[in-house]
Structure to design on (293 residues):
């Protein structure tokens, strides 16, 4: 199993290393294709390669025209089967963290919670790969307050690191009748204000934690971005008197996420390349938004 994972990782990195060459070749073909369509002369720098490139253009179809990237490889099989999530915590979790993780288990469909014990990260990831989990979610705390969330997609990544703020669990809400019961139906997703390239990347990581819901599902999960703070809300809706009388009921938990790093690899791969990371000097540019407008 270890040799197989090493081989798959090397193949993935090799395909990623070819992206620059494929992008350059794609740009050359695009210039020739546009020149032929508009009846313009072939660019001077491409005249020596025109015959070979035109032959390749004739053999392409809609699936091979646009070059694939490592992002396509990461979630290539996401539509073939439902996500399966392994949920765990840091070592020696406190009672509030354990309660929060128990509620997260119901938030993510097909999630399984395990006790961390003395296991190290590499052992957890190896176990998850062996049992065909698609994602590993680790929750961390500081003095009994949940403060970190790591989402690692398997087998190649990516891994997103979030700060966790303003956590309010269902357990902390006193009026149990007002919040309703926790359904287990697959939820509809609302992803708001993920407009930048990094925002689309973040939304892609979050949405692949959830399977495709049925059209009549009354459960809704919202990730709303404002000033690079992602608010998580969990609701169900009911129609008591027709389509215009809609009652929205929050069922918890609720929290905010703050993205601070994305790595091109699983969480156990310390050598993985960092795709994006927030730097101290970024905090001085108050008006700069990285995930959405």
């Amino acid at each position: 199993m270890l040799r197989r994972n090493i081989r798959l990782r090397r193949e993935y990195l090799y395909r990623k290393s070819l992206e620059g060459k494929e992008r350059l070749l794609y740009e050359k073909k695009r210039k020739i294709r546009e020149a032929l369509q508009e009846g313009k002369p072939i660019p001077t720098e491409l005249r020596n390669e025109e015959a070979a490139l035109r032959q390749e253009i004739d053999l392409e179809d809609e699936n091979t025209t646009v070059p694939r990237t490592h992002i396509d490889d990461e979630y290539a099989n996401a539509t073939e089967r439902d996500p399966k999530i392994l949920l765990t915590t840091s070592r020696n979790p406190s009672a509030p963290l354990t309660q929060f993780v128990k509620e997260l288990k119901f938030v993510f469909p097909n999630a399984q919670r395990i006790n961390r014990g003395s296991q190290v990260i590499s052992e957890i990831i190896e176990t998850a790969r062996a049992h065909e989990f698609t994602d590993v979610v680790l929750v961390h705390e500081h003095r009994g307050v949940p403060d970190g969330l790591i989402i690692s997609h398997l087998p190649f990544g990516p891994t997103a690191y979030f700060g966790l703020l303003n956590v309010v669990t269902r357990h902390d809400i006193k009026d149990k009748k007002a919040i309703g019961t926790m359904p287990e139906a697959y939820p509809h997703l609302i992803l708001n204000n993920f407009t930048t390239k990094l925002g689309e990347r973040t939304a892609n990581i979050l949405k692949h934690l959830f399977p495709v819901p049925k059209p009549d599902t009354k459960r809704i999960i919202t990730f709303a971005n404002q000033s690079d703070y992602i608010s998580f809300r969990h609701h169900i809706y009911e129609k008591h008197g027709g389509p215009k009388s809609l009652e929205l009921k929050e069922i918890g938990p609720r929290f905010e996420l703050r993205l601070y790093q994305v790595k091109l690899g699983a969480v156990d791969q310390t050598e993985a390349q960092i795709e994006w990371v927030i730097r101290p000097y970024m905090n001085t540019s108050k008006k700069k938004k990285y995930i959405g407008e």
